[in-house]
Design brief:
alpha/beta; Arc Repressor Mutant, subunit A; Nucleotidyltransferase, domain 5; 3 domains; five-stranded mixed β-sheet; about 20% strand; binds zinc ion
Length: about 400
């Protein structure tokens, strides 16, 4: 028992020192003694070990008033790499990320999810192996694999519980990949990973609590407090997209009618516009006539352009969608009272100010006790890379915490 305790304390101290070195641009042993309150002997031993493992890099000698000048060193973010994967039904992205959230390499391929889970995961393992070869990453430099998936994930069991995008249920993604690759593997849902990316490396970097609202094909949310994503009792938390806003509204993929997702998401806005063009309520003119069949990001760009030109029918669609989203955000703020809200997804990325302005106006009008809050709403800082970087942040927990 005593040996176990000693081991635990040693590892605890090692991670404490490692976190402190990572936090600072440059440091020294004297500085680490001051900051961590550990003894000089412990710091000497730990830094010696960390240098051997490649985690710290010597940068020169500091000033001294008397005697020996202290050695200066910094964190070596290239000491290990994380392979972070965004596994989406249409496309899979693989990235090599250093220990500071910097993407070193990135590639993608079509997922072909219709071929089934076995083929998709076998193919993913193959692609990861060839990525390691392509960028000459030795096994000892690879810390772990982190996979972020479109769907509901149970991070404890490592299973994808359910995904309407893939049409899968209870797939043991983590264990299957760990067995295939012999590498420590983490899994997380795409939405939570995206939020973690923004929290640690993006727009939410300085906040203590953050709500991430993803306005994309669907609408997703994640709430983070003190660095931890809130997980519900059944891992089905923060499903803002499936909160009911319209009595007898359009049918949602969840089988119910009037979910926020079928009213205010990118797909919903595009679908409504297409319908109005088809039925002649919006004149078939210019690029708006061609939006059917376009990738959603391009279609929404065209819709926003029309709104900027003050097309009354398009503005009405955005006003309706923006009203329910603004109302839902006001409710979310009332429940969890976050310091900051980060908006992600292609709708917020492409919006020149015609849609989010409506959302902003409505949420401010509908908010409970607005004068007592300083909630800020900002756009994503990482854009499409937030999922990959957030996936790496999931893996960092094993290294630093
Ligand atoms: Zn729904």
């Amino acid at each position: 028992m005593k040996t176990a305790n000693r081991e635990f304390m040693r590892e605890w101290n090692r991670k404490l020192v490692l976190r402190q070195i990572r936090k600072e641009k440059e440091t020294s042993q004297i500085n680490l003694v001051k900051k961590t309150k550990l003894s000089a002997g412990t710091i000497v031993n730990i830094t010696k070990q960390l240098r051997k493992e490649g985690f710290i890099r010597y940068t020169g000698k500091g000033k001294s008033l008397s005697g020996r000048r202290p050695e200066k060193f910094c964190f070596n973010s290239d000491a290990r790499h994380v392979i972070s994967v965004a596994l989406f039904a249409l496309e899979t992205k693989i990235s090599v990320i250093d220990l500071n959230g910097k993407i070193k390499h990135k590639l993608s391929y079509p997922t072909e999810h219709e071929k089934g889970e076995k083929t998709v995961l076998t193919n993913l393992a193959k692609q990861v192996k060839s990525t390691l070869l392509k960028y000459s990453i030795p096994k000892e430099k690879l810390n772990s694999l982190s996979v972020s998936i479109e769907g509901s994930v149970d991070e404890e069991t490592g299973c994808l519980k359910i995904s309407s995008h893939f049409g899968w249920k209870n797939v043991p993604v983590r264990d299957t990949l760990e067995k295939m690759l012999g590498c420590k593997t983490f899994i997380e849902s795409e939405g939570r990973a995206m939020a973690l990316g923004e929290y640690y490396f993006g727009a939410g970097k300085k906040a203590d609590s953050m709500l991430c609202v993803d306005i994309d094909s669907g609408i997703g949310t994640a709430f983070i407090k003190n660095g931890e994503v809130y997980h519900g009792a059944h891992n089905l938390e923060a499903e803002l997209g499936h909160s009911l806003v319209l009595e007898d509204g359009p049918l949602c993929r969840c089988g119910r009618k009037g979910c926020l997702e079928v009213v205010s998401s990118g797909s919903a806005i595009i679908k409504r516009t297409e319908e109005m063009v088809r039925t002649g309520r919006i004149k078939k003119q210019g690029s708006l006539a061609k939006i059917s069949g376009l990738p959603e990001r391009e279609a929404i760009r065209i819709i926003f352009e029309m709104a900027e030109k003050k097309d009354a029918a398009v503005l009405k669609i955005l006003e309706d969608a923006g009203y329910y989203l603004g109302l839902s955000i006001a409710n979310m703020i009332t429940y969890v009272d976050p310091e900051i809200i980060v908006l992600t997804g292609y709708v917020s990325e492409e919006d020149p100010g015609v849609f989010l302005n409506i959302v902003d106006k409505v949420y401010k009008e509908k908010l409970f006790l607005p004068n007592m809050r300083k909630t800020k709403i900002v756009k994503s800082a990482l854009g499409e890379d937030s999922v990959l970087i957030g996936g790496a942040a999931v893996a960092y927990k094993g290294i630093f915490e």
